[in-house]
Structures are given as C-alpha cells and as structure tokens.
Design a protein that fits this description.
8-stranded mixed sheet, 293 residues, Rossmann fold, globular, alpha/beta
Length: 293
C-alpha cells in the first residue's frame, strides 16, 4: 500500500507521541566525541530494509534523531518498530523519492519538526536486471527516476536548508557498479555512475558553505535488491565466485556499511568531502588470484 509523503507511520509511545525509543549506543570508539552523532537530525531515504535500514539503526543506536522513509506504510512501520528499542527518536514517513515534490515536502517537514537537518543519507534505490537490448523506456525511467533524479532533488531540498545553516552532511549510497558493473545491470550502473559525479559536483559547489557531500560504494551485498541475482539462474555459482575472488573472502552484509556512514557524518570526517568510500571487501583493489596453500 502506497501512502502520501508526510504520513506518520511511527509507533506512538505513551508520553512520546509520534516517536520511537531506541537503545543507547554501546560503549566503544563510536561513543568518542570525535565520532559522535548524538542528537544529530538524520534523514535516511529507502530505509525500510537492507542497507538503508542498517544505516538508520546505526544512527539511532548512537543517539541521533532519525527520520526514515520508504514507499510503503506497512514496511516503514515495521522498520521503525524493528530499530527502536529504548534510547532515542525515530520517526517514519511514507515518501517515494521519485516524486520530487513529495521529497521537498518531506525535507521541509523534518526541518519544521526538528529545527534543522544535519545529515541526509540518500539510500533509496531500485534495479531491474536484464539484457541491455531488453530495456524499455518505462524500465529506464523507473530506475533513473529513483536512483538519480529522486536522489538529486532530495539532495537539493536538504542542501538549501544546510546552506542556510552553514553546515551539513550528505552521504549518497553509490555502488561498485559505477566503476565495474555486473552483467545485465546497465541502467542501474549508469545511474550509480551519475551519483558518483553528483557527489563530486555538489561537494565542490557547497563546500564553501560548510556542507560536505560524500558517498559510500557497497560491493556485492546480501540485500533484497540483490536477491534476483543470487536466487536467479546461475546465482549460486556467481555468489561463490564473488566470495572466492574477494580479498576478504566473504560477501558483504548491510551492517558492513554502518561504520563508514557514522564516520562520514561525524567530526572525524570534517575535512573530507567529494569522496566515494568503497566498502567491498577489497574487490576494486584489482584482480584477485587466490594461491593454493
């Protein structure tokens, strides 16, 4: 079921209307002030599952005030419940970022509610795996409207508020497909290459205003988005090949992306902008030829 942007789907907690309570951060290096994201206002698009959900949970568990978005009310509500044991604030909103007007309204609503937006994580993304000659205009538009058009205009909406505040952080969820695409993901790979350039362009333009823009580039990761690959024809062999040819010898998990996002949103990354940090187990380091032991 699709909902309208701005529809509240967060579970109501007695005395804490329209909020979820989240457990506090665990002790460790991410509690250090340099790496702290406590009390930040963080908007994560595409956070109903997979990488976006893991990132949203990571911020919430470390004391950030998190707004999560997705296209379906039921999944966003479930995600909000999942990441919200006691400790902080998480609010769910239904929003399809492909609807750029809805994205603008969402950002304005976040700022009206919390007074600011400190960090935007552009994670909403879609894919259709097929031969290049099989793509239709409708499929092309479906992928690019979310992956680049939606992300770009959501960045602009948040960026205007960040420029006015003289500070802010944006983190785009890119992909190693922008560098070395898998077979039969032409439009997805093209959209992620565009996101890489968007990251650099906005970093250049907004740096003088104190706004940093970076990206993470996940390698092959076990998410619902990648499910058609590993469950499709030849998927088991492909996953095995990927694992054997990744220097760290395993497939990525959504949780592997969290630490980099916390770092990029923290004071520790205050002099970092315009960069794509690849989180791929070493895949892009070069051809990996495992030697017999």
């Amino acid at each position: 079921m699709r909902g309208q942007a701005g529809k509240l789907t967060a579970r109501t907690v007695p005395g804490k209307a329209e909020q979820h309570l989240c457990r506090p951060a665990e002790e460790g290096w991410m509690n250090d002030e340099m790496f702290s994201v406590k009390n930040q206002v963080v908007l994560v698009s595409g956070a109903s599952r997979g990488i976006g959900l893991a990132i949203a949970r990571g911020f919430a568990e470390r004391g950030a005030q998190v707004v999560i978005t997705g296209r379906e009310a039921e999944t966003i509500e479930a995600a909000a419940r999942q990441i919200c044991p006691p400790g902080g604030t998480v609010v769910g909103r239904v929003c399809d970022v492909a609807d750029t007007a809805a994205g603008r309204r969402l950002v304005d609503e976040v700022v009206e509610r919390f007074g600011r937006i400190d960090t935007l994580v552009n994670c909403a993304g879609v894919n259709k795996r097929m031969r290049a000659e099989e793509y239709t205009e409708d499929v092309y538009d479906y992928i690019t409207n979310t992956n680049i058009r939606g992300a770009f205009f959501l960045s602009l909406a948040a960026g205007r508020h960040m420029i006015g505040a003289g500070r802010g952080c944006q983190i785009n969820v890119d992909s190693i497909n922008s560098r070395t695409p898998l077979n039969r993901v032409a439009v997805y790979a093209m959209s992620k290459a565009a996101m890489s350039q968007m990251t650099r362009c906005l970093a250049m333009e907004w740096g003088p205003y104190g706004v940093r823009v970076n990206a993470i580039g996940p390698g092959f990761t076990l998410t619902d988005l990648a499910r058609p690959i590993w469950e499709g024809e030849g998927g088991e062999a492909m996953v095995r090949w990927r694992q054997e040819n990744t220097p760290l010898r395993r497939i990525g998990l959504p949780e592997d992306m969290v630490g980099a996002c916390i770092f990029l949103a923290s004071k520790a990354a205050s002099y970092i902008t315009g960069q794509v940090l690849y989180i791929d187990g070493g895949t892009l380091s070069g051809l990996f030829w495992p030697l017999p032991v």
